[in-house]
Design a protein that fits this description.
Blueprint (H helix, E strand, L loop, with lengths): L4 H13 L4 H8 L3 H9 L6 H11 L3 H6 L6 H24 L1
Length: about 100
């Protein structure tokens, strides 16, 4: 379990951005309102399963929920650069066709 007031605050921000109450989120996650309250206040930690579910629900990475940053590894960066180069190539082809 991971206890973190900043992570809990981020979860609260994501919940509010989705216009969910704590009860709405608890129902969606199949947990109690009190559990969500404790997570958001940093008094209780999340299991990996709960972090994964929150990550999927809010469309953010687990490292962003927990750390507030997104970490990339070198292979991730290389793949991203390759994707960007491929997109640039496609855009140049479209521009030539205009």
């Amino acid at each position: 379990m991971y206890y973190n007031t900043k992570g809990g605050a981020r979860i609260r921000e994501f919940r509010i951005a989705k216009n969910f109450t704590q009860d709405d989120l608890a129902e969606h996650m199949n947990v109690s309102h009190g559990y969500i309250s404790f997570i958001e206040s940093g008094k209780r930690g999340c299991s990996v399963d709960v972090l994964i579910a929150l990550s999927n629900l809010f469309g953010v990475s687990i490292d962003y929920i927990v750390l507030g940053t997104v970490t990339y590894t070198a292979p991730d960066s290389a793949a991203l650069k390759a994707d960007i180069q491929a997109l640039i190539g496609q855009l140049e082809k479209f521009r030539e066709q205009l």
